[in-house]
Amino acid sequence: MRKKQDRKKQISTLKKVFHYMKRYIPLLVFSIVLATITVALTLYFPILTGQAIDLIVEKGLVDFDGILQIAIKGMVVVLITALAQWIMNMCNNRMTYNIVRDIRKDAFHKIEHLPLSYIDSHSHGDMVSRIIADVDTFAEGLLMGFTQLFTGLATIAGTLLFMLTIDVKITLVVVVLTPISLLVASFIAKKTYSMFQLQTKTRGEQTALIEEMIGNQKVVQAFCHEDEARSTFGEINDRLQKCSLRAIFFSSLVNPSTRFVNSLVYAAVGITGAISVIVTGGAFSVGNLSCFLSYANQYTKPFNEISGVVTELQNALACAARIFELIEELSEKPDAEAAYVLEEADGHVDIDHVYFSYTPSQKLIEDFNLHVEPGQRIAIVGPTGCGKTTLINLLMRFYDVNSGEIAVSGHNIMDMTRSSLRSNYGMVLQETWLKKGTIRENICMGKPDATEEEMIAAAKAAHAHSFIRRLPQGYDTPIAEDGGNLSQGQKQLLCIARVMLCLPPMLILDEATSSIDTRTELRIQKAFLTMMQGRTSFIVAHRLSTIREADVILVMKDGKIIEQGNHETLLAAGGFYANLYNSQFAS
Amino acid sequence: MRKLLVYLKSYKKECILAPLFKLLEASFELIVPLVMASIIDSGIGLNDRPHIFRMGAVLVLLAVIGLTCAISAQYFAAKAAVGFATKLRYSLFSHIEELSFNELDTIGTSTLITRMTSDINQVQSGVNMVLRLFLRSPFIVFGAMIMAFTVNVTGAIVFVVTIPLLSLVVFSVMFFSIPLFRKVQSGLDAVLGHTRENLGGARVIRAFNKEAAETEEFNESNDFLTRMQMVVGRISTLMNPLTYIIINAATLAVIWIGGKEVYFGVITRGEVVALVNYMSQILVELVKLANLIILINKAIACGNRIGEILEVHPSVCTPAVGGNKSASSAETPVMKDGMPVPTVEFSHVCMTYQGSAEEALTDINLVVEKGQTVGIIGGTGSGKSSVVNLIPRFYDVSAGSVRVDGKDVREYDLTELRERVGVVMQKAVLFQGTIADNLRWGKPDATEEELWRAIEVAQATDVVKGKAKASGDGKSDSDGLDYWIEQGGRNLSGGQKQRLTIARAIVKDPDILILDDSASALDFATDARLRAALRTLQKDKTIFIVSQRTSSIQFADKILVMDDGEAVGLGTHEELLESCEVYREIYESQFKKEDREVQHA
Questions:
Q1: Kind plus residue range of the DSSP H or E element containing B254
Q2: How are beta strands A536-540 and A506-510 bridged, if at all?
């Protein structure tokens, strides 16, 4: 039953692979034609050498003219074969790499359009490994499949045909004996499967330990935990040694065993062939025997290879299935065709009866109402993990509300294009994110055509100019992946400069200054104040000083909005906020 | 790579036996064409059927011996390769455990992890393949040539010409394609980097509406990768057709020359067949050899990456016992000149991070008595963490000295020193295991009461108790301590993790406790309760609190104000408000206005 389902899944994956191959069908057909030519000519060559050998009989009895003719014919055949093989390989390469490129392209396109809920809830490492490692394995399998499966099968069929035309009996010997090598190979593969599984499992266990201990080496050392780590590692390592040895040794038996079977076939052909030469009195010639011996070799080789190719192809299909899973993931609902394009928001934000939760079982935001006038400042406050980012997710339409509506400038945000909505917000997130590239590219991210003066002005306003100037290449200093060469504070300053440059009509500041020292924070605060002038702003922060001056304070706890009002009214109410505020002085 | 070979030492026997058996197997394989020649010449030529069967039996016997040899060779090769990898992996892990913070900072942990895992696996399969095949293929190639000489010298000349020609083709294809492979690899790295970046920055990219531009950039690097792959493909696909031409042309030549030799009665027809067979054996081996060389190249590259790490020496290590003065100072003085020796003393400390031109700390002086609480405050990158990192000797000073209980930290046994110091780092890290396992890191024999006390001080009671409910699958005896923390603490929030790491350090019960900005994810109320609870710990505990919030350190006995690697103020809150402008500025940005307003309210 399970097997049937697996088979079904494989077939559907195969169909999708064919979908990608469609564009390259001329190449595929051409490649198959070339493969047929290659195989036929490769098989024809031993016949020529056999004929040549038959022209050599004994001392003084050699037909040199005949041999020369055959040699010339042989050279032509060889050259054509080589050429056909080369062009075929090129076709296969082109087809494979293009298909891989197309798949990667689609996968990446999908990533740009996946709902954020998917990106938030799935491991990035896993998605990356799908797009990189899986596509690669798939490519290799596909390439190997193209080049080896078809030529392998063609070789088997062709040799069989050629052998039959020479001698039926000896052909039968070859045909009967060869599959034994397949049986042996699959027997060993089956027996070693569980050993490999154990090896994989143990390896996984070890990798997890390595990741933990080496990834957090500093903590390990601070607690003098090195020896414990070593002994745990050593224990797993020893187990791995045992199961690896078993898996590797037993699986490495496939090759000698199939070679052994081949040797037996060779011996059998040798004996029966030699007897045939004697019995038929030369009708089956020595040249025929030499030709047969080389066929026996060629016939068995693809059998040995095909078992490898089949596992490789299965593996490739499994990888392909993982990629397609990603590609077929539902995208964000596209903007309606007649969606409203928000030019420049006037700063009105109206939230009416909004309900939202990430999972239906855990209700978060219920009947949330808020009316923001242009230029107002909304502070979102609450203890750690209270779900403040949820609000941002809704405002920016990273997530859609379950019911109710959020309107900007009087238009429901569900009815406007996401891009026009988002470009009206300037956002600085808690987790800074910078692109690989130069400082300049990062600051100008939202406004690629900004002039030098505009960019420097924005950097100055974000208090980033002074540190950028001191970098080795100033604004053209390259930033390593994820800003590795900058401090957390500097990264945040850049993110602020990035927003400063665009100055959209509404702002979302998510703990924007949480890892910047307080002195810099003070300056940024001033810059923000000017920036916030006349702009509707939503601010998330721990620091009460930054939100005290807000027009509305939303107090959140456990993902819910529990209080709403301004500083004075909330203090007077003596609720959660008052508690939070007073605790600052409680020590 | 060569340095890694020491790890093969204890497998000397296997390393000799594996190739030896392979060579034996190959020699038997080389006899096969001779046997076949005998079948043709003596069997068919003389019409001797028993001879044919005898020779057939010899072929089977050769196959059986070959199989036995091959299995033995595989066994010894696998044993040596796996044993080698196991030893190498252990010593690499052990070595990495010894590296100090400086090296970890410069190398980076993610690359250490790949070197420990995939690189070692590559090397293992490389060693395995080398032991199995590296001797075999050249042996067959040259063996075939030598056997050809025993058959007929003139015919063997063809071999002498063919083999260098083939090697030239194989090696030049590799010579041109291997550097290109590296380019393909970097192309792949670019595609990978792009993908990772876009997943991590999905929010920002969408907020700035950069999806189209990002896709454009991705397509560029994707196309580049495809182009590189095709270029490499174009070169490496040349190999098979070219070798095919050479070998088959050689076969025709062998037949032509063989024909002449037969004509003059030098050799027989069967011997010509043998020569042809040797030629095709070479073809098969050559293809194997080419694949093997690619694999070896990969393995060597990986081996070098591992070797690089093994060559890095820890910059911070326990001084050698004996010889220097550290041995004599096992007893640390309690009093000096009639005054108690300070618990921690910085004198004229300067510090420079590896690979950095500028000093991270300049001339820091600080004296801390037993039982004092010290606050350290300052801007991002001002050197706050650098100061406290010197106490457990995570880094070494470049000038001056840090003394703990009067003794230079460089004279301590590292374990002894670090056991006295508890550090809670900025990044809250927990390990796979139960909460109790994690808390017992610094003190494996801590009782449950001790754990609970530490949890309480760290304000984590709610966290642990809450987990009791979460894991309560009907088992009533679960109190949260046995709650299973997943790798990287995935199932805990940042604040929860932070509180547990604080508890972990408290369980260790160190003389000196350092909280390095480790309450940043806590809200003000929790932070305040934590500080109050810390003060209830034993009186003789010396506590360092690094923070950006004045409220966290305001009540410390001593506050060190850092600015750009220098100490710009040292004193109590009141003193600093008077004398230190930087401190006043920080304080006012956080408190002054609110103070006023509270009074108004």
A1: helix B239-263
A2: parallel
Tens digits of residue pLDDT in B498-532: 889 999 999 988 899 999 887 766 777 778 888 88
Give, for A362, the enclosing helix (H) or strand (E).
none
ipTM > 0.90, yes or no = no
Show which of residues 250-279 on chain A sit within 8 Å of chain B, judged by CB atoms: 252-253, 255-257, 259-260, 263-264, 266-268, 270-271, 274-275, 277-278
Interface membership of A218 toward B (CB under 8 Å): yes
Which residue stretches of B492-570 are H helix? 494-507, 524-535, 550-553
- Identify the pLDDT of residue B249: 92
The token pair at B41 is 């010449």
Enumerate the domain spans of chain A. Answer: 2-200+247-327, 349-585
Q: How far is the C-alpha of A260 from the C-alpha of A263, rounded, in Å?
A: 5
Is A60's CB within 8 Å of B263's CB? yes
Rg of chain A (C-alpha set): 36
Instruction: Express each pLDDT in B203-234 by its tens digit.
Output: 888 888 888 888 998 999 999 999 988 888 88
- The pTM score is 0.69
Across B367-374, average pLDDT: 90
Return the pLDDT at B596. Answer: 43
Q: Determine the average pLDDT of the residues in B422-449.
A: 87
CA-based nearest distance B345→chain A, Å? 20
Residue carrying the six token digits 């690697």: B565
Q: Count CB neighbours of B427 within 10 A.
A: 14
Beta strands, E only, A122-200: none
CA A21, A26, A27, A32 torsion-angle sign? positive
Question: Among partner residues B233, B522, B526, which is closest to A93 by beta-carbon distance?
Answer: B233
Are B380 and A263 in contact (CB < 8 Å)?
Answer: no
d(CA A141, CA A104): 16
Distance from CA of A541 to the nearest CA of B (A): 10
Range of B441's domain? 428-509
- Domain assignment of residue B377, yes or no: no
Q: Which residue has the tokens 């060469």?
A: A485
Of the residues B250, B283, B310, which one is the last residue of a structural domain? Answer: B310
Query: Under CATH, to which class is A349-585 assigned?
Result: alpha beta
Given a contact cutoff of 8 angstroms between Cβ atoms, the answer to whether A142 and A96 are in contact is yes
pLDDT at B82: 93
CA dist A203 → A199, B345, B418 (Å): 6, 46, 32
Using the 3D structure, point to which of B509, B525, B557 is the last residue of a domain. Answer: B509
CB pairs under 8 A between A and B: 445
Q: Which residues pair with A403 in a beta bridge?
A: A355
Cβ <8 Å between B71 and A244: no
How deeply is A402 buried, as exposed, middle or buried, from its count of CB atoms within 10 A (0-12, 13-18, 19+)? middle
Residues 160-189 of A with CB under 8 A from B: none
* Residue A231 sits at the chain B interface (C-beta within 8 Å): no
Q: Best residue in B31, B34, B226 to probe A by mutation, most A CBs within 10 Å? A: B226
Closest-CA distance of chain A to residue B593, Å: 8
Tell whether the model's pLDDT for residue B473 goes beyond 60.
no
DSSP code per residue over A30-51: HHHHHHHHHHHHHHHHHHHHHH
